[in-house]
Design goal:
- It is built from 25 helices and 21 strands.
- The chain has about 725 residues and is of the alpha/beta class.
- The strands form four sheets. Strands 13-14-16-17-18-19-20-21 form an eight-stranded mixed beta barrel, surrounded by four helices. Strands 2-1-5-4-3 form a five-stranded antiparallel sheet, sandwiched between helices. A five-stranded mixed sheet has the order 7-8-6-11-12, with helices on both faces.
- Strand 13 and strand 14 form a beta hairpin.
- The longest helix is centred in the first third of the chain and has 43 residues.
- It is elongated, with a radius of gyration of 40 Å.
- It starts with 7 loop residues before the first helix and ends with a helix.
Length: about 725
């Protein structure tokens, strides 16, 4: 039989068994190991939920650390073994199928939170114990006159049997008594401690207020104080403690002695430092990570006036190709080598390099004048990347794009600075890469606006923020209105009316161009039907609507079906519609791409080749394209706005018109702005035209008025 795979509960119990076996030998408890395992099982479930939760909650890890203290796992080695066990097995047993790198990072943060909760709970327990000892000492001192022998015996039992270090000194600071726990903490003999003065234990890492509190206590101005303090052991090592000093008074209330209670926190501090390092440094490269970099950047940006900063945001060019072709192991070795080179670019204490993630690195320089230092740092980074990197017998050329931001502190937040650097880096990448660019506030604003428009596009269509303006198409022979081109606009609530050049590229990039184009097509066809109904039979039956089609729409498999459904739903014939595509969209188009156009043309829909003359296409290819109209780009006819026109332009336009007519194609000219231009184009044989000379794009009522004037004129 094939064994059933372990379920989540089985994996939790297996992890709990490993955990209980690790901590049971160092736990002072009356429980058996299976009983301790059942005590730890709810903690394992809690850690598993915290590991897989959508948002990280440090309180979960802190609660588990506190629960260890409640379970009498109070030895530092019990915490160390617990953290080692979770570091090795929590992701393995509870993180199956998830993002392993992200789960490892969250596991490290859970360990840090767990250690903090353990330390806090142990400190609270110790403080309670300290308070009990202090109260016992006070009570013992208070009844000396009545029961000196009994009180001395009780105090001595508490004094010698306590697990924390206890010392008594006079008000001048001379040590009078110490217990065995304190002797073990310092690692010396009683003779080396007794008789010393507490002021001899000044340490370089003492907080500034430590000795101020001490002076206040011996003067009787405070009853006690609690600080974290370091001591120098006789062997030269450092002892870190949680120190509580209390003032003992005589029967008349006068200060008489000082009582010091010390908890050894050295191992816990070293553990916290190790966890802090792991939480703030990149596991692969050893560089500071995003967390530590943001802490440093925020500190720099909140510095005093007169200081400046420079930031270089580096992204490797083509790194994904290396990962895809050589594998992630090779990519990791490349990142390690790049990190080493970047670290070598740091020349002083006011500079740092960090890895933000993936192939993104950042370098920071600070000081009073960073204008030139930021450029110099970017140049050093570019030079450091020039030499090839050898991996698996291959020499890889490393290229990078850098965005540089420099300026005074205090004006922008860390997020704003990094966003500007990111935008600038992508500007360098779009310019070809392997270069650095300086931040430009105007370019940043454009990029931010572009991003805002991109994110607002999907809801804008639902909210009805788009509308269509129509520019008339006029017959050059008799001046009659033959139709109009539909031009979509966006009435943005913040930026006002936006032309298609501002949002059509964004719509194409996001894929929204398909539903937007479908909406424009249906609205335009409905408007064309309304025009024909208002004008009645006759010449108005030839009014046609031109709708622009993007390359993305042409490639969409539902183009033909959507067009047919719209025409049928609106109730108009296909000849009411002309679809315009730019010449550049059809250069090199294969038969598969042209197939939907041919089907639309066979239905009776006109196909216009827009911006003709700008795509450098082979004129002979016109025969294979299913087009019926050429729209001549305005660049060919600008010289005709004044008389006399450029004879070369006249010859070019004449040749294009002759060729088009020989292929049975109509010719429409864009950008007609003067009467002289319109007359020249008429003489050259162009069929229709559009431009400001006739009318600017406007609401559909304007076309109705023009067509009505034409019919009655």
């Amino acid at each position: 039989m094939i064994a059933e795979p372990d379920g989540p509960e089985d994996r939790l119990r297996r992890l709990t068994t490993i955990w209980s076996r690790a901590v049971f030998p160092v736990t002072s408890t009356s429980l058996t190991r299976p009983e301790l395992e059942e005590r730890l099982l709810p903690l394992t479930r809690r850690l598993s939920r915290a590991l897989l939760a959508r948002a990280f909650d440090a309180e979960e890890g802190e609660a588990v650390g506190a629960a260890l203290v409640d379970a009498h796992c109070t030895e530092p080695e019990a915490l160390s073994r617990s953290l080692d066990c979770l570091d090795a097995y929590l992701v393995l047993y509870c993180g199956e199928g998830g993002d392993q790198e992200g789960l490892r990072a969250r596991c490290a943060r859970l360990q840090h939170a767990m250690a903090a909760g353990f330390a806090r709970a142990l400190r609270e327990r110790t403080l309670a114990e300290q308070e009990a000892i202090a109260q016992a000492a006070l009570r013992a001192q208070g009844v000396v006159a009545q029961a000196l022998h009994a009180s001395e015996a009780r105090f001595r039992a508490v004094f010698e049997g306590a697990a924390i270090g206890i010392g008594i000194a006079d008000l001048e600071g001379n040590v009078l008594q110490v217990n065995g726990a304190l002797l073990r903490m310092f690692g010396g003999s009683e003779q080396t401690l007794r008789g010393r003065n507490v002021r001899d234990w000044t340490h370089a890492e003492d907080a500034p207020h430590v000795w101020r509190l001490y002076e206040e206590l011996v003067r009787g101005e405070r009853e006690h104080y609690h600080v974290e303090k370091a001591f120098q052991r006789p062997d030269g090592t450092v002892l870190w403690t949680n120190l509580t000093v209390s003032l003992l008074r005589d029967a008349d209330g006068n200060p008489q002695y000082q009582l010091a209670l010390m908890e050894d926190t050295t191992e816990r501090r070293l553990l916290n430092l190790r966890l802090r390092y792991e939480a703030t440094h990149d596991a692969l490269t050893g560089l500071p990570n995003r967390t530590l970099f943001f802490e440093r950047l925020e500190k720099v940006l909140n510095a005093g006036e007169g200081r400046r900063f420079g930031l270089c945001y580096l992204d490797l060019d083509g790194f994904k190709t290396i990962n895809d072709s050589l594998g992630h192991a090779a990519g990791d070795r490349l990142l390690v080598e790049v990190a080493d080179r970047l670290q070598a670019c740091v020349t002083g204490p006011e500079e740092m390099v960090a890895r933000l993630g993936g192939d993104e690195f950042v370098a920071l320089t600070t000081g009073s004048d960073t204008r030139h230092r930021a450029d110099a740092l970017a140049a050093r980074i570019m030079n450091a990347l020039m030499a090839p990197i050898r991996i698996d017998g291959r020499e890889l050329t490393v290229r990078g794009s850098i965005g540089v931001v420099e300026g005074p502190v205090g004006e922008r937040s860390a997020a704003e600075v990094l966003r500007s650097a990111d935008i600038t880096m992508y500007r360098a990448k779009s310019a070809g890469g392997n270069r650095f660019e300086l931040a430009d506030p105007e370019a940043d604003a454009r990029a931010i606006t572009r991003h805002g428009l991109t994110t607002a596009l999907p809801t804008a269509l639902d909210r009805g923020e788009f509308f269509i303006e129509y520019q008339p198409l006029v017959h050059l022979g008799d001046g009659s209105v033959r139709g109009a081109e539909a031009l979509v606009r966006w009435l943005h609530p913040q930026y006002g009316v936006l032309g298609p050049d501002r949002f059509i590229p964004l719509a194409e990039h996001t894929g929204l161009i398909v539903p937007l184009g479908r909406w424009v097509l249906e609205q335009s066809v409905r408007q064309a039907r309304e025009w024909r109904e208002r004008h009645g039979a006759g010449a108005a039956d030839s009014l046609r609507i031109n709708v622009n089609l993007s390359p993305c729409q042409l490639r969409h498999p539902g183009l033909v079906q959507d067009t047919v459904e719209i025409l049928e739903r609106v109730g108009v014939q296909p000849d009411v519609l002309c679809l315009e595509l730019t010449e550049s969209a059809l250069i090199g188009a294969d038969d598969d791409l042209l197939k939907p156009l041919r089907r639309l043309a066979e239905m009776g829909i006109d196909i216009a080749l827009d911006d003709f003359g700008t795509g450098y296409s082979n004129l002979a290819n016109l025969r294979r394209l299913p087009v019926s109209v050429l729209k001549l780009d305005r660049s060919f006819t600008q010289s005709m706005q004044q008389f006399p026109a450029d004879p070369v332009d006249l010859k070019i336009v004449e040749g294009i018109v002759t060729l088009a007519h020989s292929l049975d194609l109509a010719v429409t000219v864009e950008g007609v702005e003067t009467g002289a231009q319109a007359e020249q184009l008429r003489l050259l044989g162009c069929d229709t035209a559009q431009g400001w000379y006739y009318a600017r794009p406007g609401p559909p009522e304007r076309l109705h008025e023009l067509a009505l004037a034409d019919a009655t004129g």
